[in-house]
Amino acid sequence: MCGLVGMVGERDVAADIYDALTMLQHRGQDAAGIMTCSDGKLMQRKGEGLVRDVFRSTDMARLLGRFGIGHARYPTQGSSGAALAQPFYVNSPYGIALAHNGNLTNSAFLSDELFQSDLRHLNTDSDSEVLLNVFAHELHRLGKLMPMPEDIFTAISTVHKRCEGGYAAVALIAGFGLVAFRDPHGIRPLVVGQRVAASGVVEYMVASESVALDVSGYELIGDVHPGEAICVTEAGTLHRQQCAENPKLTPCIFEHVYFARPDSLMDSISVYKTRMRQGAALAKKVLRERPQHGIDVVIPIPDTSRVAGQSLAYELGVKFREGFMKNRYIGRTFIMPGQSERKKSVRQKLNPVPLEFQDKTVLLVDDSIVRGTTCGQIIQMAREAGAKQVYFASAAPPVRYPNVYGIDMPAADELIAHGRTVEEVREEIGADWLVYQDLEDLLACSREGNPAVDGFESSVFDGRYLTGNIDEHYLQSIQAARADSAKRHGDARGVSDGAVVGLHNDN
What is the dihedral of CA 304, 255, 102, 458, to 10 degrees? Predict the structure, then answer.
């Protein structure tokens, strides 16, 4: 799961890209990068860390150009390190840079094919570099001295045929402009917006979430449709075309559960209203299963469960209180690399307010229970703060299956609900009572926002994978490559503390 930005403006766009990336920081904390183009030359700055740490004022001054792309990285496929920071670049044809959100599920096959048939070298184990080289090869095959929008669309049509999985991408082509495209299932999000400069010039921006448009005053045009590609030329002309044969809108339901900011619109669905409906639906289940619940107070686990918790408390007619104070200088524990880091940071991140717990039956509400790291410790913190009983509610169903489309849940045995009943999970996390949202209710909460949606990618809950040949062999292979145990051992390929392979990358 990563954050993407692409922009074509009247003047240098690097500062606006930086601002947009800060609005998307929640989507990735591992690394960040910006690449711009000026007079046919590509300039970049990328590195490990938060957006605010990667870019200095001197870096921004060197990022010249009226069009550019940016990326905030959340590692799933591929190791960590400066060499894995995006955007990635290839010099042939034209000079192309690309940033990617998601996972290619046939990355291993494509890597072999790129080397053996396309004669292309890959420098990292990142599937983003694979996607870039597939796109570059398909453009190269057309043999045009300078591509036209129709050439870009032709190349992306073949990319969709070759690549499987969930992906959204933004790309720069030197001397041409900005390109953006989204997988035929619309699993990974991508929106497009515009603003009118004082001179009357129309400027364009694409991003992972609509909130990135807001900070720079862009008006949301709408979503990039599944399978659709967008080109904005250097002259500022927007071109759009459907490039997939049978596109379907099946966005990732976990965006609505956790990843997206609540103030985002995704596929015409308000994330905020969706989470309100999640809380209301969960309250109905609480009343069905425990009519005499005896709950004194509802307390959310900050921040992503706050909206659902407010709605749940209202429907139950129970007090809603902020029982945990969050340290804003600790990042999202879910996206931290490795179980030990996630576990260590929970108590650094949250501190209880004893007054809200003392001698009370407390219902804690979280957006989901994945590994159980956070909720187990938080339940213990609630007891230490004086809670009489601690109930726990998840606004999402049990997470039982690995995610293969860009969320760091590669190993089934790291998921607390995998192979366990609800009662067994309750015992494991130490709650007095545990209630999960029903999957049908979760999907209905999102579908209400846009009835035109064909469905949702919900494989972490039901084990149904929408793309490619996802079988047990594949799941075992990604577990071996991406599980926490594999990350601890490290992967030498693509890990670098030295210079980043690239251009105009002054450290």
Answer: 120
Catalytic choice (2, 163, 243, 445): 2
Nearest to 314 by CA among 351, 349, 280: 280
Q: Which position has the token pair 């959100």?
A: 101
pLDDT of 334 reads 52
Cα separation, 447 vs 274, whole angstroms: 9
- Tokens found for residue 182: 């989204």
2 is catalytic: yes
**Residue 267 DSSP code:** T
State the Cα–Cα distance between residues 2 and 221, nearest whole angstrom.
22
Q: Of 327, 380, 328, 325, whose CA–CA distance to 356 is shortest?
A: 325
Burial of 220 (0-12, 13-18, 19+ CB in 10 A): middle
CA 149 to chain centre: 28
With CA atoms as reference, report the closest residue to 379 among 309, 458, 444, 299: 299
Please choose, from the candidates 290, 224, 300, 236, the residue with its C-alpha nearest in 3D space to the C-alpha of residue 262.
300
User: In this structure, are residues 132 and 98 in contact, taking their beta carbons and an 8 Å threshold?
Assistant: yes
Backbone torsion region of residue 318, taken as left when φ is above 0, otherwise alpha when ψ lies between -120 and 50, otherwise beta = beta
pTM of the model: 0.91
Beta-carbon count within 10 A of 501 CB: 13
Q: Domains in the chain, please, with CATH? A: 3-248 (3.60.20.10), 271-449 (3.40.50.2020)
pLDDT digits over 376-434, tens only?
A: 999 999 999 999 999 999 999 999 999 999 888 878 989 999 999 999 999 999 999 99
Residues 6+ apart with CB under 8 A from 459: 401, 403, 404, 405, 465, 466
Instruction: Report the C-alpha gap between 230 and 46 in whole angstroms.
Output: 25
Are 14 and 64 in contact by the 8 Å Cβ rule? The answer is yes
Of 100, 437, 402, 419, nearest in space to 257 by CA = 437
Convert the pLDDT of each residue in 81-114 to its tens digit.
778 899 999 999 999 999 999 999 999 999 999 9
